[in-house]
Amino acid sequence: MSGRDMVKPLLGHRTIEGDPSITPAAGRTIGVLGSGDFARSLAIRLVCSGFKVVVGSRNPRRKAGLFPSAAEVTLQAEAVKKTDVIFVAVFREHYSTLCDLADVLVGKILVDVSNNTEINHHKESNAEYLASLFPACTVVKGFNVVSAWTLQSGARDGNKQVLICSNNQEAKRTIAEIAQVMGFTPVDMGCMSSASEIENIPLRLLPAWKIPIFLALGLFICFFTYNLIRQVIHPYIREQKNKLYKIPIEVVNTTLPCVAYVMLSLVYLPGVLAACSQLYYGTKYRRFPDWLDQWLQHRKQIGLLSFFCAALHAMYSFCLPMRRSHRYQLIETAVKQAVEKKMNIWVEEEVWRMEIYISVGIIALGLLSLLAITSLPSIANSLNWREFSFIQSTLGFIALVISTLHTLTYGWSRAFDENQYKFYLPPTYTLTLLVPCTVILAKVIFNFPCIQQRLQRIRRGWEKGRYVKFVLPSARGEYSSGETSSNV
Ligand code: NAP
């Protein structure tokens, strides 16, 4: 951000007069202790949001040039005296050096923005440690989940959520208002005991992706090994043919669609299991086992990884004709034909198979792309529930059916050809069909009216065995007894 930009309000200064809805936070003076990367970005964002900023540094003369001219850079004690709200942009290990300021800090709100280098690094959170050093201050934990870069890039980019916790409601409200004026969305995380959890958040590496990534890797390793045995090891052992060249592209390219296809079916399998459980127990109020709960929560990531593998499969497939091995094989076939004086090698069935195989593959990839795009929060938020569920559930299921057609047209009659059973191992595609076909079959069965109706009733609150007797007025004006669920 240029020096000129630094003084120009980014979000527009909101004044209190005349507009009762506007928060009184804007316009107040905010203190920042420290003059490092975070302090500088914070000061820029605060100035741009209409706050007066006073920065407390151990060496204000040297650091002043790094800050916007609208921000005052002064000695730590001077800065603290000028404001009631102070962001402590200093590492935990240097907190104790601030103890000289204890007298001037009495009664002030300190915002602890610090992070650690390891999860649960210290017994007590940094914010609790700061509070123990300054018992006469009110400490609020917050802003640690936004980076210096996010602060500088303005409200248009980066993470918008600011997680806040404190034992003092009033202080928490003040910091939430400041965050709001700065263009962030404050999220109340409760009292100070949540500080450790908030400090751990920036250190977690893709927490929601761990299980899906391990699942995808596990499937990849299994299918890769299986394909390696069939495509490379079998010809070597049986015919002493060296097919190692197949590993980087062919083996990988037969593995990727297997992973993509099975992962896609794993997006819909937990829904089937959940429906089975609801039908079996006759209620939707019974908790699913933890593993099923976890699985249901990871469906988005599993689906996105399925799309990723399918996209890679499409790219690999595009490149297949570019390989030298492919060119040599083509020429070899042409030479053989010439030697054998064969003119027509056109096999109608094979031509049709390939046309259908590629076409349904493209459609399946198109649908998967749509599912992936609509799972992005910005797109998902613009859809109503019906639209979202139509795309993710109905179109997703159609994508699974089309992928099954893609797999079947690829395999065609290979499952019935005994030459395809290398070391008695069936062709890979037959294995991949197991889970998806189970899911498709289960979905078809759930659509039988008798089952569908029962499932719908359960999902609207009906429970097996929980009947109450109630009295229905009959058409003749008499009363007859009937049975219904207490919830309907
Ligand atoms: P930094 O660039 O190293 O700045 C730390 C500042 O602390 C120094 O510039 C220094 O300012 C001040 N300080 C006060 N007493 C000190 C002492 N005894 N020894 C050394 N420095 C002392 O670090 P930073 O990246 O701005 O991070 C500051 C805090 O923000 C950390 O707690 C960090 O976890 C948190 N945070 C940073 C980011 C980020 O993206 N950088 C994101 C979230 C949270 P003076 O010399 O002017 O006193």
From TrEMBL:
Its cofactor is FAD; heme b. It catalyses: 2 Cu(+) + NADP(+) + H(+) = 2 Cu(2+) + NADPH; 2 Fe(2+) + NADP(+) + H(+) = 2 Fe(3+) + NADPH. One of its GO terms (biological process) is iron ion transport. Its main location: membrane. The chain crosses the membrane at residues 211-229, 259-281, 302-323, 356-376, 388-408, 428-450. InterPro entries: Fe3_Rdtase_TM_dom (IPR013130), NAD(P)-bd_dom_sf (IPR036291), P5C_Rdtase_cat_N (IPR028939), STEAP_metalloreductase (IPR051267). GO terms for cellular component: endosome membrane; plasma membrane. The keyword Ion transport applies. Residues 29-116 form the Pyrroline-5-carboxylate reductase catalytic N-terminal domain. GO terms for molecular function: cupric reductase (NADH) activity; ferric-chelate reductase (NADPH) activity; metal ion binding. The keyword Transmembrane helix applies. It is a multi-pass membrane protein. Keywords: Copper, Endosome, FAD, Flavoprotein, Ion transport, Iron, Iron transport, Membrane, Metal-binding, Oxidoreductase, Transmembrane, Transmembrane helix, Transport. It is found in: Endosome membrane. Residues 259-401 form the Ferric oxidoreductase domain. Belongs to the STEAP family. This is STEA3 Metalloreductase. It comes from Probosciger aterrimus.
